[in-house]
Design a protein that fits this description.
- This protein is elongated.
- A hairpin with a 4-residue loop joins strand 10 and strand 11.
- By secondary structure, the chain is of the alpha+beta class.
- It is built from five helices and 18 strands.
- Strands 5, 6, 9, 13, 14, 15 and 16 form a seven-stranded antiparallel beta sheet that branches. Strands 10-11-12 form a three-stranded antiparallel beta sheet, with no helix packed on it.
- It is about 30% helix and about 25% strand.
- The longest helix has about 40 residues.
- The chain has two domains: about 120 residues, no CATH class; about 130 residues, no CATH class.
Length: about 270
């Protein structure tokens, strides 16, 4: 078996998958509330050994028989994909319906057809019913949505909307509601859906609702993506070069080495 060929093929597939992640990041460099994705590349042999060391059972397998093919098992592969929740830049827009969160672990809650989801996107609209919604039409939820069936924030038509930095909404100095703002204790519990939505199981216990009069949100600002376009382009170039290198190795394995082997093996000495 040409183990080198299989190893290079697996490595190329890994780089293709990494290219997909980089392309997704670059496509959303200007998407409000988008958090960049990253990947962790490892190999099966190292992961197996780490898990093996954690087991309480004694390893009685012979050292030489641990892996059926060390060359293939050393093939790099994506072992984990993560979301980078580092801080994002706030950009002034002047639009009263742009609400930007000021800290990276704060989230709004919106009602989707699949249930309640968290988001950090900051550009909202008002629909025909006077409700504050995302660009996809998902309703922004008030602070008491966990305790009541009333999950709507109604804004009087044609009135100037004001948002305090603690999330309180008012019209003509009269409070109409307060936005639900949650501080997520552990962002590893978030499951990304689409570009800017996150699902969290048991949201009432895994997030802390911000109820005090702190400064958590700014009106008239857009929360930009935390994707660094320069870094992503550098990573894109590096990944493309790796793919080209693997292609050359595959050609060498299948064409040059095979041809050389066939030529030598077919030679009959007198």
């Amino acid at each position: 078996m040409q183990s080198g060929y299989y190893q290079v093929t697996g490595a190329m597939v890994t780089q293709f998958n990494k290219l997909d992640v980089i392309s997704q990041n670059l496509a959303n460099v200007n998407t409000s509330g988008f958090k960049r994705e990253g990947v962790v590349i490892g190999d099966f042999e190292r992961l197996f050994q780490e898990k093996r060391d954690e087991l309480p059972l004694k390893n009685n397998t012979k050292e030489a028989a641990k892996f059926f093919n060390r060359s293939v098992n050393r093939t790099p592969r994506i072992v984990d994909q993560f979301t980078d929740f580092s801080s994002m830049t706030l950009k002034h827009s002047g639009n009263p319906l742009d609400f930007a969160l000021k800290e990276p672990d704060l989230f709004f809650a919106v009602q989707t057809p699949q249930g309640v989801r968290l988001t950090q996107q900051s550009n909202f609209n008002i629909n025909a019913q006077g409700e504050i919604v995302t660009k996809e039409g998902y309703k922004l939820l008030p602070e008491n949505f966990l305790d009541t069936t009333n999950r709507n924030i109604h804004v009087p038509k044609g009135r100037a909307l004001n948002l305090a930095q603690d999330g309180t909404l008012s019209v003509d100095d009269n409070k109409i509601d307060k936005i639900f703002i949650a501080r997520v204790k552990n962002t590893n519990l978030l499951h990304k859906e689409g570009d800017t939505l996150y699902k969290m199981d048991n949201i009432e216990n895994n997030s802390i609702q911000v109820n005090d009069n702190g400064t958590y949100v700014k009106q008239g600002f857009i929360q930009m993506s935390n994707v660094n376009a320069v870094e992503e382009m550098v990573s894109l170039i590096e990944t493309n070069r790796l793919v080209e290198m693997y292609q050359r190795v595959m050609t060498t394995q299948m064409d040059d080495l095979n041809k050389d082997a066939i030529t030598k093996l077919a030679t009959t000495r007198a």
